[in-house]
Amino acid sequence: MNVNMPKTRLTITLDEDILKRVDAAIDGSKIRNRSHAIEYLLSSCLVPQSTKVLILAGGEGVKFRPLTNELPKSLLPINGRPLLEHTLLALKEQSLTDIYVSVAHLGKKIKDYFGDGARLGVRIKYIEQAESRNGTAQPLLQAKEYLSQEPFLVVYGDVLTKINFLDLLDFHNSHRGIATMALASVEHPSMWGVAAIEGNRIKDFVEKPKNKTRSHLINAGIYVLDPGVFKYIGSKSLRLEQDLFPRLASEGKLYGYPFEGEWHDVSTPQIYAEVMKEFKV
Questions:
Q1: In a domain, 227, yes or no
Q2: 250 lies in a domain?
Q3: Are 77 and 65 in contact (CB under 8 A)?
Q4: Which of 88, 98, 104, 168 has a 20 to 30 A CA-CA distance from 224?
Q5: What CA–CA distance (Å, rounded) separates 60 from 70?
Q6: What is the pLDDT of residue 281?
Q7: Burial state string for 232-243 with b = 16 or more CB within 10 A and e = fewer than 16
Q8: Is residue 111 domain-shared with residue 23, that is, in the same domain?
């Protein structure tokens, strides 16, 4: 919630049971009092359930042990389910069911497994990436016709996480920036894009910094983007991490949303082995 936005004082009467539930939301830090709790709960309920989600699942295939066949990273099995299924179920649980999946190499395997999403209670439409559209910027630009009406979620297909997507959407809507980046905290941040924040803004973003950095907040591969973002992506843009986010940070239009939930970037055999061990698979 943006405490700097204009406020209007109201007097309301609540049922005692509802008031107890409101009070239960107060954690003393993020939600400090009843007023904050009511505003937070209302804003969470009023996030448009029509919010669209773009999942970028067009990366190269992988062949991690003990697997024998090449798979898209989003189909790597974790705890009895493909990685992407964990994401889809989390979105469904938060009533975010209008989903576009951008696919490329081995995309048929993704489509064959998930179909139209009805089995999981979501609606999936697939966007075939053009062969020349490598990286993350061009697949996003290719989805412009579906995502140009209101802020939308972008989730990388090789990310396993527990995050409150609705809270992230509310955070973005209250700050009214061009982009909001979910930020995870890791011990060794140099493997990812590192964000230096000042207040709620990301003042500097560096992809895989070569020099030691003080910040341990890294790009979690989850964003809320305003349709205005398409003005920043040209036909020669390659990666959001290099061609978009540093520019938005320099213009004060990139916000950071740190969260403490579980997060794994399942992008290498080593990380996949660690995740498998954690889930005791």
A1: yes
A2: yes
A3: no
A4: 104
A5: 10
A6: 43
A7: bbeeebeebbbb
A8: no
Angle between helices 83-93 and 107-114 (to 10 degrees): 50
Planar angle of CA 270, 273, 276, nearest 5 degrees: 155
Mean pLDDT calculated for residue range 198-222: 90
- At 44, the pLDDT band (50, 70, 90 cuts) reads low
Residue 37, helix vs strand vs coil: helix
Question: Does 32 lie in the same domain as 153?
Answer: no
Length of the chain: 281
pLDDT at 48: 56
Q: Please choose, from the candidates 55, 42, 130, the residue with its C-alpha nearest in 3D space to the C-alpha of residue 34.
A: 42
Query: 120 and 173: one domain?
Result: yes
Q: Are 73 and 64 in contact (CB under 8 A)?
A: no
Confidence of residue 212 (pLDDT cuts 50, 70, 90): confident
Are residues 133 and 38 both part of a single domain?
no
pTM: 0.81
Of 81, 2, 94, the C-alpha closest to 53 is: 94
For the segment 64-116, what is each residue's pLDDT rounded down to a tens digit? 665 656 788 899 888 889 999 999 999 999 999 999 999 998 899 999 999 99
Q: Considering the domain boundaries, does residue 175 fall inside one?
A: yes
Q: Are residues 229 and 241 in the same domain?
A: yes
Q: Which residues pair with 179 in a beta bridge?
A: 225, 254
Domain count, the chain: 2
Task: Say what angle helices 34-46 and 16-24 make with each other, to 10 degrees.
Answer: 90
Specify if 11 maps to a domain.
no
Answer for the pair 103, 58: CB distance below 8 angstroms, yes or no: yes
